[in-house]
Amino acid sequence: MTIKPPVEDFATDWDHTDERWVQDPYPIWEDLRSRCPVAHTDRYGGGWFPATHAGVSAVANDTENFTSRTVVIGNGRPEEDALPAPIGVAPPITSDPPFHQIARRLILPAFAPGPVNALEPRIRELCVGLLDQMKGQEVVNGGMDYAQYIPAAVISRMLGFPEKDDDIFREFVHIVLEGVDHPREERIEEFAPIEEYFTAQIQDHQERPRDDLTSYLLNVEVGGEKLAIEHVFGTMLLVLVAGIDTTWSAIGASLLHLATHPDDLERLVNEPELMPFAIEEFLRFYAPVTMARLVKHDMDYLGVPMKEYDWILLGFPAANRDPAVFKDADKFIIDRLENRHLAFGLGIHRCAGSNLARLELRVAIEEFIKRYPRFEVADRRAVTFAQGQVRGPRNLPFRVLA
Amino acid sequence: MKVVIDAERCQGHGRCFSLAPGIFEFDDLGNGVVIGDGTLTDETIELARLAQSNCPEHAISIEESA
Ligand code: HEM
Ligand code: SF4
Q: B residues 24-63 near A, CB within 8 Å?
């Protein structure tokens, strides 16, 4: 790994992997909003970070001037990528119009409220099972032993991968998201086990089709033709990567909030009707995901001179704290009624898994606070955050209180 | 008074049919759809406004005159 100098001024040299940003980005974003709504960096070959809701919305809704060809910032220059727009490596997230709509429509039915809500009993059973395994412990790990396992198990079941492989997946997710600044050759090497595993699964599903997402992708037809294997592969990779770290982060951040805000915990335990509003406020306040775009051509945009192939980091979590849009934006209000947050993005790439993510988040919290109506952080220093474009607590030692 | 969803803007965030299932439902893709012709009553207007104020895409509008 290359050692990078620490950031001195985020307005002119931002880096989302800088230790200060990883630990506590909110004061940084607040400062940027007040000074220079669009921050610049020369790192990663050049990029911009709009810190306001207006800036984030403008870019997210503009597929003419920005491409989704790569949405994870790295050192590799994007033109080297094997599969360019409009398809990209992981459709639909790396696809641009018009192909994007085709790829998205393919997967939306599998993630629509109907099929997703049907998973609720299985998810609840999974959560209860994980809690049962923690029984008798004075300090439980709400991150590593709970939040982490829920989305991994749900997605791998959806794809039809065997339960015994759940640990392997989590490793894959780290490879994809947390090795962002590794050199390109290293990245190719790191990806090899994922490619191998998926190829084996695809083959297995071709020989023995089942009622799961992998078989669905292998058999679905667009214009009378089956999908290219690269497309199937890319979409499988996408739901695996997009569905695990993100939801783990959201569950973990919500539990951490409750552990550190006993009043909110008590209200949520006593007033379960607040849950729908609490879930949206957790998502607004602790939105875990930032996504990237590439500038398509030189232009002046949002008042700054953008260059072709500059990165744009879409700070949905920063937009969610913009006082221009949210009243008391920096306050967590468990029963906030109006909440147009952007945790799941905006525009054509709106998180396809948002129904599933909300369901997992709700059930995970419901079951956790049912089992542990009172808990606190056992060791503040042991709480660690993931670095990268998906930010959330990983290790969450909670002391169970009587 | 009537509530309408602009299908061009709706991206299926699902806030409307979760908050106000009596007024909105979802289609096969998970996009929001207004149930019936969207006529609002004194009882439903507030819920429709709540849904409107939670749609991230600003896809919901309430036509006061209709
Ligand atoms: C709390 C958890 C989650 C958060 C905060 C989240 C956030 C996001 C965001 C912000 C985007 C927009 C990306 C962009 O604009 O480039 C996105 C896209 C996407 N997410 Fe999620 N996500 C979560 C969970 C999930 C889950 C559980 C799945 C699936 C199993 C999923 C699948 C997807 C897919 C397929 C896309 C691409 C949609 C498209 O490009 O049309 N996500 N997600
Ligand atoms: S809340 Fe808005 S974007 Fe979401 S489904 Fe309803 S109308 Fe569509």
A: 26-30, 50, 53-58
C-beta atoms of B53 and A276 within 8 A: no
pLDDT given at position A141? 97
Write the class of the CATH domain A10-400: mainly alpha
Residue A108 with chain B: CB contacts under 8 Å: 12, 28-30
User: What is the per-residue pLDDT across A124-150, written as a single tens digit (0 to 9) for each?
Assistant: 999 999 999 999 999 999 999 999 889
What is the Cα–Cα distance from A277 to A13, expressed in whole angstroms?
Answer: 37
Identify the DSSP state of A82: S
- Using the structure block, give the residue that is written with the tokens 């004061």: A27
A83: pLDDT strictly greater than 80: no
* pLDDT at residue number A70: 85
Closest CA to A340 of B34, B9, B44, B7: B9
pLDDT of residue A52: 97
Minimal-distance CA residue of chain B relative to A277: B19
Task: Indicate whether residue B10 lines ligand 2 (CB < 6 A).
Answer: yes
Interface of A with B in 233-262 (CB under 8 A): none
Cβ of A112 and B26 within 8 Å?
yes
Q: How many domains is chain B partitioned into structurally?
A: 1
pTM (2 decimals)?
A: 0.93
Range of the domain at B15: 2-63
Contact A90, A353 (CB under 8 A): no
Residue A401: per-residue pLDDT? 96
Look at residue A76 in the predicted model and tell me its pLDDT.
Answer: 64
pLDDT at A302 over 90: yes
Ligand nearest to the CA of B31: 2
Domain of B38, CATH number, reads 3.30.70.20
The answer to whether A341 faces chain B, any CB pair under 8 Å, is yes
Domain ranges of chain A: 10-400
Q: How far apart are CA B57 and CA A57, in angstroms?
A: 10
